[in-house]
User: Which sequence fits this backbone?
């Protein structure tokens, strides 16, 4: 999607993937810095470890404690978290009114943390449900300490989720169920969903997740995980180039790549 954006705007740049083993992260980053690259993304499993290699952090990335985008500013590396801003943008672009909505977030891992911290600055109500209650408790304490915001937490069970959904406007699945071969299943049935709910499943790579299918069948508005991937990319593009990202070309490129991948798997 970045190469499509560079082409469209006539920017003489290229985006290339490198596989970096954990033990070489420091030297890989030093190599990029000494070669003067404008910026780069960092993904699993380096999003936390990368913090040690950076000279400055954007405040949101500091709160989250994870970085996925790095900008090289005259040899100083600055870290951002565009997963967080990308998720919020995906919600905004797909009709969620952030300030007035009550959010229920499923999960308390890395992805959920990013979304909760991003929403903590803007949304009216946040409820976090997680399989392991202690992890949700730790997130609650951290959000209180760093963002001075109260969130509600509970354990992720069908009964508690169904109860939370009675007062929810936007449901976000930020667990890793369905991602990278995680075979779990969310404790939710169609009858727990109401039509005016917006359902955002951040899992991408599947044409439709189990949650999205149930939500669509009920008539809910659904947001695909691809939208978060797209908007985190658009935010990174803006940071690196100071230009508005050509979102439609980026989406086309991303969907074409996903289709090609799915076809190859069939
Ligand atoms: P990521 O960085 O992708 O968020 P993670 O930090 O490993 O990955 O977090 C995964 C999240 O998915 C966690 O909230 C995890 O719940 P636990 O904290 O209880 O582990 C949740 N998760 C993963 N598999 C699950 C399953 N089968 N049922 C319910 N929750 C699950």
Assistant:
């Amino acid at each position: 999607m970045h190469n499509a954006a560079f082409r469209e705007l006539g920017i003489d740049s290229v985006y290339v993937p490198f596989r970096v083993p954990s033990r070489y992260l420091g030297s890989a980053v030093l190599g990029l810095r000494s070669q003067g690259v404008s910026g780069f993304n960092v993904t699993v499993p380096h999003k936390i470890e990368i913090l040690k290699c950076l000279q400055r952090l954007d405040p949101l990335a500091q709160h989250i404690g994870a970085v996925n985008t790095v900008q090289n500013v005259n040899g100083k590396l600055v870290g951002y978290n565009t997963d967080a801003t990308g998720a919020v943008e995906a919600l905004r672009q797909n009709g969620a009114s952030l300030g007035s909505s009550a959010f229920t977030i499923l999960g308390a891992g890395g992805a959920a943390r990013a979304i909760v911290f991003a929403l903590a600055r803007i949304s009216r109500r946040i409820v976090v449900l997680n399989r392991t209650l202690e992890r949700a408790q730790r997130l609650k304490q951290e959000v209180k300490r760093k963002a001075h915001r109260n969130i509600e937490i509970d354990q992720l069970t069908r009964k508690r989720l169904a109860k939370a959904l009675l007062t929810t406007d936007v449901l976000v699945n930020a667990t890793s169920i369905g991602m990278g071969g995680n075979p779990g299943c969310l404790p939710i049935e169609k009858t727990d969903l109401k039509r005016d709910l917006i359902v955002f499943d951040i899992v991408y790579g599947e044409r439709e997740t189990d949650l999205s299918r149930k939500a669509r069948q009920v008539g809910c508005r659904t947001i695909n995980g691809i939208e978060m991937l797209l908007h985190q990319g658009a935010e990174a593009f803006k940071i690196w180039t100071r230009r508005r990202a050509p979102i439609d070309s980026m989406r086309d490129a991303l969907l074409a790549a996903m289709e090609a991948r799915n076809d190859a798997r069939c």
